[in-house]
UniProtKB/TrEMBL annotation:
InterPro entries: dUTPase (IPR008181), dUTPase-like (IPR029054), dUTPase-like_sf (IPR036157), dUTPase_trimeric (IPR033704). This is Deoxyuridine 5'-triphosphate nucleotidohydrolase. GO terms for molecular function: dUTP diphosphatase activity. Residues 140-183 are annotated as: Disordered. It comes from Rhodococcoides kroppenstedtii. It holds the Pfam family dUTPase. Its cofactor is Mg(2+). Substrate binds at R74, S75, G76, N87, T91, I92, D93. Its EC number is 3.6.1.23. It comes from the Bacteria. SUPFAM superfamilies: dUTPase-like. Keywords: Hydrolase, Magnesium, Metal-binding, Nucleotide metabolism. This enzyme is involved in nucleotide metabolism: it produces dUMP, the immediate precursor of thymidine nucleotides and it decreases the intracellular concentration of dUTP so that uracil cannot be incorporated into DNA. Residues 24-154 form the dUTPase-like domain.
Length: 183
């Protein structure tokens, strides 16, 4: 059985990667045992308040089948500047071989964020995933939760009885509903 605390040099499985830009650093963990490796920007960029930008990392990976790469924001940057990853977590599928790019957003309302080439902008976490097959059925088993979705568990005074989801139309649905729904 593999030691759950094993590190990259003591028998753990490996992820092959290529530097598409030879000057970018090798993906590394800031501290031994960290889940994520840092990814850096390949260019200087200014992200205006509320804006988003796609930033290259100069890294491509060959993830083993049964794994996924998840792109997470760096917590310090998020806390200090409002920089985050738009589609948190971003998904790198095992079959993808192109450059890892990070879609960043500046959540600060007034201050642009300046990134320099080589700045650490995100983290890549590689995890094993189940690859189930999906089976279409006519009905689903009933549960106590049922159809309760967004906000159905409560727990926050600000939720109150206010509607939480605005219903929009989808192709073939007809016009959008004019009232909000609470699921």
């Amino acid at each position: 059985m593999t030691d759950p605390h094993s590190g990259p040099d003591d028998g753990a499985w490996a992820v092959s990667f290529r530097r598409l830009d030879p000057s970018v650093p090798v993906p590394t963990r800031a501290h031994a045992g960290d889940a994520g490796v840092d990814l850096t920007a390949t260019e200087d960029v200014v992200i205006d308040p509320g804006a988003r930008v796609l930033v290259g990392t100069g890294i491509a990976v060959a993830l083993p089948v049964g794994t996924v790469g998840l792109i997470h924001p760096r917590s310090g940057l998020a806390a200090r500047t409002g920089l985050s990853v738009v589609n948190t977590p971003g998904t790198i599928d095992a079959g993808y071989r192109g450059e890892i790019k990070v879609c960043l957003i500046n959540h600060d309302r007034s201050t642009p964020i300046e990134l320099r080439r080589g700045d650490r902008v995100a983290q890549l976490v590689v995890q094993r995933v189940e690859l189930p097959r999906f089976v279409e059925v006519d009905t689903l088993d009933e549960t106590t939760r049922g159809h309760g979705g967004y906000g159905s568990s409560g727990g926050h005074a600000a939720l109150g009885d206010a509607p939480t989801v605005q219903r929009t139309s989808t192709p073939g649905d007809g016009p959008a509903a004019s009232a909000s729904e609470k699921e």
